[in-house]
Amino acid sequence: MLLKHKKSSSFNIEDTDVVILCGGRGERLRSLINDRPKPLAEINGKPFLDILIDYAAGFGFKRFILCAGYMGDMIEDYYKKKSAIFRILISNEKGPLGTAGAIKNAEPFIKSSPFLVLNGDSICRLNLHKFLKFHAAKKAMFSIALSKMKNSGDYGNIILDTRTGRIKAFKEKSELKNKVGFVNAGIYILDKSIFSHIQEGKKSSLEYDIFPKLTAMGLYGFISDKAFIDIGTPERFKKAKKLR
């Protein structure tokens, strides 16, 4: 599928890279899963990472870059043995880099601009075609998918100008307890210029270190009505087992 940008540029979904952040240690989930990295935790008999890849592949994406850190050799071995109709590349991390550092580390593998980013421990089944069209229509450099949630303070909150779609600010967890708000759904569309904002070899976070600095440049939020599900804690992991 070819999507056209209003500035006459275009990009093909089949040629658009999907970067999956799967390097975290998953320490909060150790009481349930300690023999594998968190993204390989099974949901109804299927590794969560497979669920994510199948979700994106369903929209036509064919090239996946896995940012693997903690127990990354298991992720690499798993996909070496698994046959697939799409290409899977592994960006190995020698030490903890955080979500931003992981993307910077994967820079040599990333060919497309923009590229799609998925968190390896959460899913929000929004329509990725609509998200890409939104990004192009806004002539955005960086876009974040947002999920509307009742108890948004549990995740941190994003303040959005709903008229323009521009993100104005980020609020920390607990500031908006028990209130409806927009939360980061862990899906991003990023221009390759993002690399110039991330220091190489240094641990840093997209959510806390990079995105708040980009609001002045035109950081956009795409609202989805799809549920946001993550597997980061034992309680949330058990809820995620209802995933279909």
Structure notes:
This protein is an alpha/beta fold and 244 residues long. It has a single domain, classed as Alpha-Beta Complex (Spore Coat Polysaccharide Biosynthesis Protein SpsA, Chain A). It contains 6 helices and 15 strands. It has helices spanning 48-57, 72-81, 98-105, 128-137, 206-218, 234-240, and strands spanning 2-4, 10-12, 17-22, 42-43, 46-47, 63-68, 87-92, 115-119, 122-124, 142-149, 157-161, 166-171, 181-190, 219-224, 228-230. The longest helix is centred in the C-terminal third of the chain and has 13 residues, at 206-218. It is globular and about 45 Å long. The chain starts with a strand and ends with a helix. The model is unreliable at 4-9 (pLDDT under 50).
Question: Secondary structure elements and their pairing?
Answer:
Layout: E1 2-4, E2 10-12, E3 17-22, E4 42-43, E5 46-47, H1 48-57, E6 63-68, H2 72-81, E7 87-92, H3 98-105, E8 115-119, E9 122-124, H4 128-137, E10 142-149, E11 157-161, E12 166-171, E13 181-190, H5 206-218, E14 219-224, E15 228-230, H6 234-240
Parallel strand pairs: 3-6, 3-8, 6-7, 10-14
Antiparallel strand pairs: 1-2, 4-5, 8-13, 9-15, 10-13, 11-12
